[in-house]
Design brief:
α4 runs parallel beside α9 and α10 runs parallel beside α12. The protein has two domains: 108 residues, Aspartate Aminotransferase, domain 1 (Alpha-Beta Complex); 212 residues, 3-Layer(aba) Sandwich (Aspartate Aminotransferase, domain 2), CATH 3.40.640.10. Helices cover 39% and strands 13% of the residues. By secondary structure, it is α/β, with parallel strands linked by helices. The protein starts with a helix and ends with a helix. The chain has a five-stranded mixed β-sheet, sandwiched between helices. A hairpin with a 6-residue loop joins β9 and β10. The longest helix is centred in the C-terminal third of the chain and has 24 residues. Bound molecules: pyridoxal-5'-phosphate. Pyridoxal-5'-phosphate (PLP) binds next to α5.
């Protein structure tokens, strides 16, 4: 009875929501389970800890000065990132996770009369931002091998956005194809979401000098093991960056707190930790792919820290459930139906991958 009353009350109360919010279909993040001792291979976090130098820099920020606002421009962090890529500070924008940076890009740079283009199988936040900001879009189909074919994007558009490597497929686009797209597509912004680029894909950052319509977005959540800190950044022409700053300074002037600014800058400077951990992830991925293939899985070619794998004799949803019973969580997408047979598996440590493989051997038996 109480449940029923609460429900009715809620239905009635939603009339206070704006029309935009009533019509939204929000993004559904992968599960962050409260249970301990799970092998968590579902949200593409790095299995290795962040740089110890980043942790020390963050600890040093925790004290009396937290009563003060942080630097609204995150100048030291932007200088550090600019230096890392050989760019100027006004070519760098930082935000509270690359999700926020992408959201600002949709509002500032991708909202025009023509629909924007992105792959039909891609990061599912893109259509959500379109709903939030009223951006029309056209989903461009991946080819039969689940690859992005950039020739299909050469048509009038309000902007183009795709991840490289793509998510959740893990498949990369070659830099030469991106440059050809930029040569042909000069009248709208091209956003390349390089969340996973450090796991073996060619970055388009080097093209920023030559193509003013290019915006490259990165995150510290994946290759730098800082998903919990929420830091992402965009690199591009200073006028594109200024467009993002106009949104930021009309929304939240302090998206990055003091701890995040200090930790992110230190993480960007710890080249050694970055190299060692990303090489370990790459090596574990190659080992995992080979073992899954031995078990009869088809695996899409991945340059990310995750892989998409399906077994000809087993349903994706059933395999995901059977793994869960064995305390291993992977991600399964019911939609689009083309990827429903697949499991999306984050590359963990070799020990975590071994736990997954022995559970799969047991299930397949
Ligand atoms: C993880 C991910 C992001 C979001 O990263 P945050 O910086 O943690 O917000 C962006 N794009 C893609 C494709 C991702 O998979």
């Amino acid at each position: 009875m109480t449940v029923l009353i609460t429900r009715l009350y809620l239905i009635d109360m939603s009339k206070f929501w704006s029309e935009t919010i009533q019509n939204l279909t929000p993004y559904v993040p992968g599960e962050q389970p409260k249970l301990a001792n799970l092998v968590k291979l579902n949200t593409n976090e790095n299995p290795y800890p962040p740089s110890p130098k980043a942790i020390a820099a963050m600890q040093a920020e925790i004290g009396e000065t937290l009563r003060l606002y942080p630097d609204p421009g995150s100048d030291k962090l932007r200088d550090t990132i600019a230096q890392y890529y050989g760019l100027k500070a006004d070519q760098v924008f930082v935000g509270n996770g690359s999700d926020e940076v992408l959201a600002h890009a949709f509002q500032a740079l991708l909202k025009h009369d023509l629909p924007i283009l992105f792959p039909d199988i891609t990061y599912s936040f893109y259509p959500v931002y379109c709903g939030l900001y009223g951006v029309s879009f056209e989903a461009v189909a991946l080819d039969d091998a689940f690859q992005i074919q950039l020739n299909d994007y050469q048509k009038p558009n309000g902007g183009i956005v795709f991840p490289n490597p793509n998510a959740p497929t893990g498949c990369p686009v070659a830099l030469v194809d991106i440059e050809n797209l930029l040569k042909a597509n000069t009248e709208s912004v091209v956003v390349i979401d390089e969340a996973y680029v450090d796991f073996g894909c060619e970055s388009a950052v080097g093209l920023v000098h030559r193509y003013p319509q290019l915006l490259v977005v990165h995150t510290l959540s994946k290759a730098r093991s800082l998903a919990g800190l929420r830091v992402g950044y965009a690199l591009g022409n200073a006028t594109l960056i200024e467009g993002l700053n106009r949104v930021k300074d009309s929304f939240n002037s302090y998206p990055l707190d003091k701890v995040a600014q200090a930790g992110a800058a230190a993480a960007m400077q710890d080249h050694e930790h970055f190299e060692i951990t990303r090489q370990q992830v790459i090596a574990s991925r190659e080992r995992l792919v080979a073992s899954l293939q031995q078990l009869g899985f088809d695996v899409l070619p991945s340059t990310a820290n995750f892989i998409m794998a399906k077994h000809p004799g087993h349903d994706g949803e059933a395999l995901t459930a059977a793994l869960r019973e064995r305390s291993i969580i992977v991600r399964h997408f019911k939609n689009p139906t083309r990827i429903a047979p697949f499991l999306r598996i984050t590359v963990g440590t070799d020990a975590q991958c071994d736990a997954l493989l022995s559970a799969l051997r047991e299930i397949l038996r």
